[in-house]
Amino acid sequence: MSPQTIDLKAAAGPAAFDLSLDAIFRPRSIAVIGATPRAGTIGRQILHNLSQYEFTGPLFPVNPNHSVVHSFKCYADVRDIPDPVDLAFIIVPRHVVVPTLEACARKGVRGVVVITSGFKEVGGEGARLEAELLDTVRSSGLRMIGPNSFGIVNTEPAFRLNGTFGKPSPLPGRIALVSQSGALGETILVHAEELGVGFSMFASIGNKTDLSGTDLLQYWGRDPHTDVILMYLENFGDPRRFTRVAREVSRTKPVIVVKAGRTAAGAKAARSHTGALAGRDVSVDALFAQTGVIRVSSIQDMFDVALGFVSGQVPKGPRVCVVTNAGGPGILATDALVAGGLEMATLADETKVALRKELPEQASVENPVDLIASADASRYAAALDLVASDPAVDAVVTIFVPPLMVDAEAVGGRLIETASRHSKPMLNCLMGERHGADWIRKIKRAGLPVYAYPESIALTLSAMERWRAWRARPEGRTPTFDVDVATAAQLVRSAGREALVGARAMQFLECYGIPTVPTGGAKSAQEAVKQARSCGYPVALKLLSPDAIHKSDVGGVRLDLRTDSDVESAFAEIEAGLARHNPNARFDGVCVQAMAAGGTELVVGLTTDPQFGPLVMFGLGGVFVEILKDVVFRVHPLSDRDALEMITQIHGYPLLQGARGRPVIDPALVADVILRVSQMASDLPEIDQIDINPLVAGADRFKLAAVDARIIPQAAVTEMPPGT
Amino acid sequence: MSPQTIDLKAAAGPAAFDLSLDAIFRPRSIAVIGATPRAGTIGRQILHNLSQYEFTGPLFPVNPNHSVVHSFKCYADVRDIPDPVDLAFIIVPRHVVVPTLEACARKGVRGVVVITSGFKEVGGEGARLEAELLDTVRSSGLRMIGPNSFGIVNTEPAFRLNGTFGKPSPLPGRIALVSQSGALGETILVHAEELGVGFSMFASIGNKTDLSGTDLLQYWGRDPHTDVILMYLENFGDPRRFTRVAREVSRTKPVIVVKAGRTAAGAKAARSHTGALAGRDVSVDALFAQTGVIRVSSIQDMFDVALGFVSGQVPKGPRVCVVTNAGGPGILATDALVAGGLEMATLADETKVALRKELPEQASVENPVDLIASADASRYAAALDLVASDPAVDAVVTIFVPPLMVDAEAVGGRLIETASRHSKPMLNCLMGERHGADWIRKIKRAGLPVYAYPESIALTLSAMERWRAWRARPEGRTPTFDVDVATAAQLVRSAGREALVGARAMQFLECYGIPTVPTGGAKSAQEAVKQARSCGYPVALKLLSPDAIHKSDVGGVRLDLRTDSDVESAFAEIEAGLARHNPNARFDGVCVQAMAAGGTELVVGLTTDPQFGPLVMFGLGGVFVEILKDVVFRVHPLSDRDALEMITQIHGYPLLQGARGRPVIDPALVADVILRVSQMASDLPEIDQIDINPLVAGADRFKLAAVDARIIPQAAVTEMPPGT
Predict the structure, then answer these.
(1) Is A455 in Cβ contact with B362 (below 8 Å)?
(2) A262: distance to nearest CA of chain B, Å?
(3) ipTM for the assembly
């Protein structure tokens, strides 16, 4: 997306933006340009679907070869239509799309849905045509869905717009869906119809040349007919804008996303630990964690979770009570709920006493409450009333496997009636019955979420609980630190096309108020002793030479030196070691550094994703980062909440709390460094990657201090071969 | 299960065992004892289902209150039936079940299915009645399914036996199913009917008082009509017998299990690291890994995987090619396949060249192969033929989202026809269509596996690949080491009700040929010096005192002592430290031990699961075991293969391969220790738990040596309070 696009969007206020999308989703009249009478064509099917669904305004087919299409008078050109036209569907050959758009603009059409394909997605001539398309749209003020779209839907009674060319005839409902794949859009609509799930609006955004998923998210965020937003995405046009919009919309409406392309690896060569650890998917997960977006891994899961949310009740906590008439499914439900991070509610004693009175002797009044096979409608109603009234229960899962001698319809009736009297979510698992059965259909029609298997309910409650927890957490703020940007920038510039390392990297960190262990360079043994005294004993000496990549291989690292004479001899040995290894190697002296013994090694880093921009990383050092890759990423800019969450989310967190005799580390101290690194990304976009590795916490002499760092300017990334 | 049961089973050879189950699943005649004409009763429904399904032998209702039931002449007592009776269904009140069984035995009935419930599952009187039931069965020679069974099915045309009281009318097929839950059994049969999936046999085993899931597994393992075995289990009666049978059956037929109760924790207090790390579910996973059983986590997953296996083709490797007519589903498939551990096949150049010739310009000939929306039957057939013929492809996934202008029925026809010409598995994802559609039903009827979403296919192929790999791996053998059991047993006995620790624990390990670092006890400084010299410097000194639980808290551990005087002063300091800490503490001297510096710390342990018996554990020491719980368990007895697999399966394995400058460890050396620990479980059942922690590998002076160990006899576990 060009910068121009963003400016345009920023310029238009929410009202203007919504109006421009209303022209597409809430048109007063529609032209179908490329409508044909020929059966089996898209041009016929769109008109057919629009008319069968009974669009509330007039439909105007446009095709120079026909005077009537599908019983509608047909026009040769959109400009021949005597009435105003708000929206046009365009199904003409790809090379005619641009002149058609121009005609639309001249006619005063405000929105278009371009069904025609063969653009960017096929490359070559198609890509060229798409660029032209974008220019035309931009210069005309039209808003466009597509090209390569499967169409749009708005089930609102005032419009009744089914502008797709597929089989589905979407039911009205309160879910909005945007799909980057037309095929999956159609699949989802068909599956939804089978399940009796309804939609408010739907859009297949195709190549999203103008309007994107983020635009629709923003539009639906304010749409009073939409409660839940589903997205199938393959990529983000502008992840930063998505972040901003998603964070805002997620506060009030659940946004459930299938992001495909999970396993694709980042395209850029990594020049740092941080860069190497950041796969593309890490960014997506980080972004979703920060924005409250609910990520699901399949279309099936998307349905399950949406079904729960659309029922309107979100649990106030993780405590679930299961009520069942069969043991096996109760165990499966318990397994799945606990695996999903939920808790089996501990029922209040009064609830258990009351249940005991209502239930036969063989029944279990412990959660999962087993009503046993003989349970009829009144036993279900009594038990559900009791557990739903227990303040220790946040959500109720009802399992019912209809036995031969029980009136399933009556049980269904009481489920509906009981749910209506409680404000807690009640999710229903109805097993061992065809899901088209009449009594099940009635329950669904009453708005109760019905599932075939308990695992789907566990997945749903788990997603709901994560969303609740995200919304409950304080929003956090992104602090601005008073730092010496000028000097820091000068240091980066001075590195040219090389990485900033050693003492200069430490100096860079100090500009950002990040504590470092005392460090100095020395070209002679005498200088080294002087530096050692100023750092304070014990010290470490590290070889400086552009010709020794692995310092330790040439004896270039000496630790725990305690006296002047230790330092002197270590200096001589390092110099001699290098010469022995490579007589032509350049010797730049040594780096002298105070020892930071007894602490825990941490890693804080920054890398730049080509799509997502800067990502900040945190982890423990050593095996945790190298072997276990136990690191957490967040998308820049980070809030103080994000930084604290990163620290507690690593598997090795117990070590920061004092496990195995380690020093206890104050998370706020570490969060401060993480936030300062995030600020570097704002202040110095010329930086591509940063490793602070190790950052030592809780050492004998230093509460928190960087021991080594590597600042990699963009110039170094583009110029140097990968892997060096 | 009583020892007597096991003896009986062992005594009967395979032929006798199969004959006794044939009496149940392949009866020549059936009595329905408790049959009634009253609608909505189990007694009517079973007879109804048997007759509707057209059982091929005669049916004899038995009920003293009726002379005719459901058009069948009814008998007052089973003994009144003039003809021989092989099988009886029993649906009489629970207190009449035992006399009914006795009557059956006298009549010469050979097998019974007891539907009646109210036994062990309700406790009290029920449990007493169940014990009586078992006695009657055992003494009569009858074989019994149930009580509390939902019934059995055998679809074989020679029998056509539907002895259940539910709604389903099972389709014939090649899958056998055993369910420990009647409700889930019925649910699965109903769902299968909806999907068009057929069964060979089905059994709801209820309380499995006589016949268990393992019995059926053994029976179906030899059944020529069964290709795939499904099990829903909540517990194992005899895990060791299950292990033996499952390992054998898995060699020829896939065994797919939903084991419910995953999250239940072990019931016994742990007295060792190993014990604390072994949850119940760890045993189940270990057992399944060792036996080739395919564990799935839900009934839905069970169906998906069974559908793939029943098609008869198992991939010869992990390389999958996806052929699609829509981009989005292709991406979802790729994501799911890679996440499932499969590989996207790299097509041969010739295949790509040939595809290029067949496909339009906009199509992609890279995997996933995108035929684009215009793909018709002949394009699908051509592409599928090419990729299925490519030797780099082990399995083909076909995705088809029927577009408006494509004849879906024709595509379906070519899918069937193409699959018939190739011996590679071809799994089909048919999206955006109601699954009851005629053309889809035809594909299913042709025996092709059809799925609604690509994730289900990925799950299936992943399970198939794991099964293939398990079968391909050498069986392994369980070695027997020549060890000094007598001395080891004597040491354990000598510990009485306490744990064997320190030098005596090391001596125990030596009896089993496990190397230990030189260790000795010393009560005086002089003795300590003598021991230190004999161990070899440097040494460590460790306080011995029953009154100091955490030795390091009282300064009781001194490492890296290099001289006699170091040892002397360390001894004095340890003694003084203890006295300072607690003047009344008993001082038993110190343990002197050679230092094993520079190695990698490992943990090998043993614990005893109340159900599964001995479990052997392996892991890395330090954070890997304490913080990350990165350990692997196997059920005793282990084969050499099991031991090697355990070593390579931990996350920290790279450290044993030399990562981070660690010494490279020979897995065979470690496997040897693991196998010797497994042998301890065979030789010395009086041991409950063992920790060898740390076992140091690759140290300066020792290739592999135990540094500390703890042997906990059963007597110590039952007598000592938990957590001490």
Answers:
(1) no
(2) 6
(3) 0.88
Instruction: Tell whether B183 is within 8 A of chain A (Cβ).
Output: yes
Q: What does the H/E/C string look like for A1-30?
A: CCHHHHHHHHHCCHHHHHHHHHHHHCCCCE
Give the angle A114-A24-A137 at the CA atoms, nearest 5°: 50
B591 min Cα distance to partner chain A (Å)? 23
Cα–Cα distance, A155 to A168 (Å, whole number): 13
Cα dihedral across residues B424, B430, B436, B440: positive or negative: negative
Question: How would DSSP label each residue in A200-261?
Answer: EEEEE-TT-SSS-HHHHHHHHHT-TT-SEEEEEES--S-HHHHHHHHHHHHTTS-EEEEE--
**By the CB < 8 Å criterion, does B290 face chain A?**
no
User: Distance (Å) from the C-alpha of residue B127 to the closest C-alpha of chain A?
Assistant: 12
Measured in degrees and rounded to the nearest 5, phi and psi for residue B539 equal -130, 170
Tens of pLDDT, residue by residue over A611-643, are: 788 999 999 987 888 888 899 999 898 999 999
Contacts of A323 (CB under 8 A, 6+ apart): A368, A369, A371, A380, A383, A384, A387, A396, A397, A398, A399
Predicted model pTM? 0.89
Which pLDDT band, with edges at 50, 70 and 90, does B265 fall under? very low
List of chain A residues whose C-beta atoms are within 8 Å of the C-beta of residue B260: 328, 331-332, 335
User: How far apart are the C-alpha atoms of A22 and A211, rounded to whole Å?
Assistant: 13
Nearest to A511 by CA among A358, A690, A660: A690
Query: B329 at the A interface (CB within 8 A)?
Result: yes
Which residue, among B48, B281, B325, B332, would best test binding to A if mutated, counting the most A CBs under 10 Å from its CB?
B332
Min mean pLDDT across A131-135, A371-375, B390-394, B401-405 is at B401-405
Write the residue in B191, B263, B651 that is nearest to A334 by C-beta: B263
**Within chain B, how many helices (H) and strands (E) appear?**
26, 30
Q: B263, A335: Cβ pair inside 8 Å?
A: yes
**Cβ(B422)–Cβ(A180) under 8 Å?**
no
Tell the residue number behind the tokens 């499932």, with chain if given: B340
Peptide bond into A368 cis (omega under 30): yes
Distance CA B589, CA B527 (A): 10
pLDDT tens digit sequence for B185-227:
999 998 898 888 999 999 999 999 999 999 999 999 999 999 9
Per the structure block, which two tokens stand in for B10?
A: 């062992």
DSSP labels, A382-405: HHHHHHHH-TT-SEEEEEE---TT
Given an 8 Å threshold on Cβ–Cβ distance, is B183 in contact with A432? Answer: yes
Cα separation, A231 vs A214, whole angstroms? 10
Are the CB atoms for A604 and A527 separated by under 8 Å?
no
**Cβ(A254)–Cβ(A471) below 8 Å:** no
Q: Quick one: average pLDDT of B8-27?
A: 78
- Contact: B339, A263; criterion CB under 8 Å: yes
Nearest C-alpha neighbor of A575 from the set A528, A505, A517, A519: A528
Gap between the Cα atoms of A320 and A372, Å rounded: 19
φ and ψ of B388, to 5 deg: -70, -25
Label residues A340-379 b or e (16+ Cβ within 10 Å = b).
Answer: bebebbebbeebbebbeebbeebbbbebbbbbbbebbbeb
What whole-number distance in Å separates Cα of residue A475 and Cα of residue A513? 25
What is the DSSP code string of B593-650? EE--TT-EEEEEEEEEETTTEEEEEEEESTHHHHTS--EEEEESSPPHHHHHHHHHHS
Q: Domains (ranges, CATH) in chain B?
A: 3-261+280-307 (3.40.50.261), 311-472 (3.40.50.261), 518-595 (3.30.1490.20), 600-719 (3.30.470.20)
Q: Would the CA dihedral through A76, A77, A80, A83 be positive or negative?
A: positive
Report how far residue B32's alpha carbon sits from residue B49's, in angstroms, rounded to the nearest whole number.
11
Cα distances (Å, whole numbers) of residue B603 to B618, B620, B665:
6, 6, 14
